[in-house]
Amino acid sequence: MIAEDLIPALQGIVPAWIVTTSDENIPNCTCVSQVYPVDETHVAISNQFFSKTFRNLQNNKHAVVQVIHPADNSMWVLEIEHVRTETEGALFDEMDMQLAAIASMSNMEDVFKLQSAYVFKVHSVSHLTEAQHPAKSI
Amino acid sequence: MSELDLSSQPEVLALFDGPVSIVVGSSSEHKRPHFARAQGIRSGEKANDVVVFIPEVTAHSILSDVQENDHIAVTVGDISNFETRQFVGVCTRVEQASDSDLDLCDTMLARSGEIVAMFFGEEGAEGWKRMVTRPAKAFHIQVLNVYDQTPGNRAGVKLL
To answer: Model ipTM?
Structure first.
């Protein structure tokens, strides 16, 4: 499901966005620094400062995340479902290391600290080719 | 409950004049969230209204959701400094974006494209500048709450 051409969009170069919804069905849309490929059907999202997103996921595990390919700014939307949260272990350490690199790139070292890694099952991946005009051929 | 007045915090509306990234979240009656990128935003007719413009090619999920559940969230982030606000409210109507609003979308895309070019070079910004802006739907939103969504400890703090 997570194809090779999606991987560059999961390197944290361009911030991603996640939408969750509350028990009252009020959406919440916030920026995420890191959408990390776990395996072919799972991604993990860094939790640095989630509050409403955290609360929403307690009641409704469904979310949608948008990532952007850094080379051509093409957009991908993943329908995801929260399956577990990790606060230690190999995945957490890998994400912590990548997050430090992302923080350094964006001068956000003081702000970015990984609290936990939210692991999601990926239900669908859509490449929004219709959102961009075709590139001019050379 | 008194109605919210966005002009009481001028810096909130001033954000619209910057190089921004605008994203919209909605949710179906079955509580399935959806996402779309908007290409423009402006104040509405009332003190608590904003209007966001989503290109028709990517607006279908949001359009469908607001017919079932009028709650909607719009997050606007200045891509030069990450200053971000989230406007949460209800969608009061949807109509076709006017020519002047479509021109606004083109202007806003050009403005954000300049900053993307500073980060990623002209080649890197080329794809950003190719984003479709028109035709677009205009979503009129009565804002009920505004949150600071700037990455950091204040993310999620209610401002209005």
So the answer is: 0.95
